[in-house]
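Annex B, item 7. Sequence and structure tokens for protein A, then protein B.
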Amino acid sequence: MSAGIDKGPAAVGQPRARRTFRHRAWRELKKAPLTAWFGMIVILGYFILALFAPWIAPYGESQVFDMPYSPAFYDEGWDPQFLLGTDQLGRDMATRLIFGARNTIGIAVATTLLSFFIGGALGLMAAILRGWFEQLLSRAVDVLMAIPSLIFSLMLLSIFGSNIPNIIFIIAVLDSTRVFRLTRAVAMNVVVMDYVEAARLRGERLGWVMRREILPNILPPLVAEFGLRFCFVFLTIASLSFLGVGIQPPTADWGSMVRENATLITYGSFTPLLPAGAIALLTVAVNFVVDWFLHKTSGLRDEH
């Protein structure tokens, strides 16, 4: 008789727990308002464009044609070669918009992740250690927050250069001050709990206490803040590119595309509105999803 495999309660319970989680998540998604569904669909569409830009775009990112400022519409109708026209150098606007999604969104996501890693880790450490360490970090954050972040970013990028690593690091450090304050504020209410004190008394390391005891209990406000901070970082990068110190040519970027084609507004062309509309649409979509997530995690319920 062949020996059977002993499936204990944990082995049987894990797939059931996963199925229960998926069922609960799908049930919550079905109850989401239309604004949240609109935001999720838009975000999904943008990320598909960003991931598959080389296969979706009709031309190369920096491919130039001898047809600058070619309109999308002629007297005969829509131009099949350049669906959204061309820019001042003769580059296809549709292609630039698709690659701009990859560059702008990718850099914004990387910057937001780095800012949360820096600000979140320091905020948790400040909430646990207290004393001079918390005071030193808090005063340094106050100094950085007293300076307008856009002006400070302009100054630092003018000094150190406007390459992508510098953009990510400088904006992430400046934005991490907001993450630090939020993380410290919500973690202060958790570190005084008995289970955190018990973990520290039995000799658990600082990293273990932060990762296993505190972080899971402050995750909902941090996830919501991630969406909001992504919007601010995204708009900051677009603003820096519009001012000429952000993502540099020939890399496609929505902020620089608005600046390069701004003169066409005086001729009644909608070309500069395309990247501006792409920026606005993504910002609105992320805010719709964040508002819904905040409503769900705050414990509020709709009144019927």
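Protein B:
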Amino acid sequence: MTQWLGDAAVAHLRDVADWPDVGERYEITRRLGRGGMGTVYAAQDRVLHREVAVKVLDDLGAQADAAHLLAEARILGRLEHPGIVPVHDAGTLADGRVFYVMKLVRGDRLDAALASRTLNERLDLFLRICEAVSFAHAHGIVHRDLKPQNVMLGPFGELLVLDWGVAKVPGAAEVEAVVGTPGYMAPEQAHDAGSVDARADIYALGVILEAMLPALAPKPLIAIAKRARAPLVEQRYGDVRGLARDLSRFREGAPVDAYHESLLERIGRVYSRHRLPITLVLVYMIVRVILLLWFRT
């Protein structure tokens, strides 16, 4: 008796038929997603018995995309940091397409993981993003496409900055005039992506920080985000460490460079920072006054 396959089964067979042959070591198990120049698959590493992700170039004839994919793999290979996805392997398929193997990232995107988090938890996450980006800048690498969708939060507290495919690397030739995502892209990137420096990433970080703040965020935090995303390059923080330092000072109850507080705000900040000793001193003084008045009567 003839048994017909359902539409879902046929679709799955077609999908499997398109899976790349990445050699004996890696067994493709499912498709994870498709980007601008490559498709990402989940695979089983038969040697180390672990699940990994494999990014494969889509178009064999796209030499520029092949160069980008290899550049991305080499960038990630240079950036050994807990906040940047590690690369395990790279190579060429039998059909000539390039691929690389990286850690399989599980979890939620930053923009989907903020709803249940307090302001302090959000600032913790943002400072960890700053650490990863600052590490890249120390190696001369500018991401150029920072946005919440490119930050992944794992189920055990992992935070990874992803998608370094359009990063600017020292000495590398530039082929595009414009790269980045509208809304997060610094104004100077719209004119010439090759001329930007680390302050373009600071602009994007300012946009991300602004999006992470609650509706009624403290004025100093709003000022920090505004300075980071200033339209003019020279008005921004000089480096990511300056941005992170201002945020840390806010959390410590210290004044921040981006915000000029009034006298009343300064008094309120000092009181909040030293609430207990100030309260004890005030109570002591009040008790002394009461006792003096009592004995005089």
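Comment on protein B: The two ends are 112 Å apart (CA to CA).
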